[in-house]
Amino acid sequence: MKIGHNISTLQKKLINMKTIYKLLSVSLFSLLFFNGCINYNHPNNEYLDACFSTSMNEYEVLQSVYFNNCSSGADSYTWEFGDGTSSTESNPTHEYQNPGTYQVKLSAYNPAGRSTASKIIYVNGSTDLDILVMYLGTSDPVSNCDVTLYQTLNDWINFTSPLISITTGTSGNVIFAGLEAREYFVDAYRSASDTSYYSNEYEEPSSGVLIENQVKYLDVYVEFLYNTKKDGTKEPRFVIRKMNITQKPSSDRIKWKNSQREKLKTKN
Q: Rounded distance, CA 79 to CA 23, Å?
């Protein structure tokens, strides 16, 4: 009984050793096989790690954000900018249209899988006034036109305390950026000769109240005017403007100036 028992025990041990050997053989084969596949598709077998950086964390609306991709071991990329747009470029550039807080996510891929990285970008709004100067009755832009902002109508009438002035280019467009959210009065002036000029003398100069962190688009029209008195002598421009405002024209488009002048009288 003891001998048979010992033989039975020895057989069981041999069977168990064969089983372990088979398992080890299969595991080793699988390891070599699958490693061979990964190496075949990705020879360097690099460690996959998604990584990116930006020069700043805070930007302005429409300011270009340059994303520096520092990932390793990746074959392709997908960027999600947090505003509903995306890119598959390695090092994309993006402009945010609106202020806000955006989470940017980078997904880096290789045949072994995916790695992700994310970062918060803060976009600050700017209160801007975008002005297009055109000749009255046309859509033609006015170049070399000095566009000046004033805080009050009285300053606009008398050309006192100008805030800022920008000259238009060939597009007739100027942008006043980073303004306070308030009303401004716009003066547009281009010299034509010693006795004539283009101006928005008779047009509504108010920008309306600007909304914080938004761009206000404004069309300003200028017309051809003379800066001389009836006897032909030249007058300073602020005198001409006052004369234009104090007269009682029949045109409906300038009647508002008389009412504005009356308001100023009441305040004073």
A: 44
